[in-house]
Amino acid sequence: MNSAEEPITDLLDRLAAVVPDYPSPGISFKDLTPVFADAAGLKRIVDEVIAPFAGEYDVIAGLEARGFVLAAAGAYAAGTGMVTLRKKGKLPREVHAEEYLLEYGTATLELHQDDIAPGSRVLILDDVLATGGTVGAAVRLIERAGGVVAGVGVILELDGLGGRSRLAPHRVHTLQRV
Ligand code: AMP
């Protein structure tokens, strides 16, 4: 089959790696790095995760670190800029900070206070949506910085962890539920 015709869920089943008990016992880690490493895989996931939001955003925000891959590629393809939402202590200038709960632990996400032009429509991209804690922090940061969340695009959505409902009423587009 021509790879462009392969259903995206088949492509993800074929290329994504599942690592049991990583980074801690009981967690089934979904590793998308083999999808990023595949020429057709990277293009398909980036094109398909941004497609439903065409014309609805001014800039793409990526969540450290795997979200950076998607956001940079998506922004380049769409002709927009890209904003980095980073883990605590990585950004050099004045930041907004939001703490959140992870599926495994707690963390803080930061955004430069002036990285988003007031009123900009921001598309948020990340690799995996689990509890929605990380993207929820990203939503709060973008709104505190004066942006408007245009939507959330994620490659894999883990069922049963409440991520999608935690992000309501924001539009969430995922390529596969697992
Ligand atoms: P959450 O805040 O619970 O939605 O977790 C989402 C963030 O943690 C994303 O940045 C993911 O990359 C990462 N993550 C959480 N759970 C998993 C998992 N089971 N496999 C891969 N990444 C995960």
Automatic annotation (TrEMBL):
InterPro entries (alphabetical): Ade_phspho_trans, PRTase-like, PRTase_dom, UPRTase/APRTase
Compartments, as annotated in UniProt: Cytoplasm
Pathway membership, UniProt: Purine metabolism; AMP biosynthesis via salvage pathway; AMP from adenine: step 1/1
The Phosphoribosyltransferase domain, residue ranges: 42-156
GO-annotated biological processes: adenine salvage; AMP salvage; purine ribonucleoside salvage
SUPFAM superfamilies: PRTase-like
Main location: cytoplasm
Top enzyme class: transferase
E.C. code: 2.4.2.7
Pfam families: Pribosyltran (PF00156)
GO cellular component terms given for this protein: cytoplasm
Catalytic activity: AMP + diphosphate = 5-phospho-alpha-D-ribose 1-diphosphate + adenine
Molecular function in Gene Ontology: adenine binding; adenine phosphoribosyltransferase activity; AMP binding
Keywords: Cytoplasm, Glycosyltransferase, Purine salvage, Transferase
UniProt subunit comment: Homodimer.
Family note: Belongs to the purine/pyrimidine phosphoribosyltransferase family.
Biological role stated in the UniProt entry: Catalyzes a salvage reaction resulting in the formation of AMP, that is energically less costly than de novo synthesis.
PANTHER family: ADENINE PHOSPHORIBOSYLTRANSFERASE
Name this polypeptide is given: Adenine phosphoribosyltransferase
Organism: Zhihengliuella flava
Lineage of the organism: Bacteria, Bacillati, Actinomycetota, Actinomycetes, Micrococcales
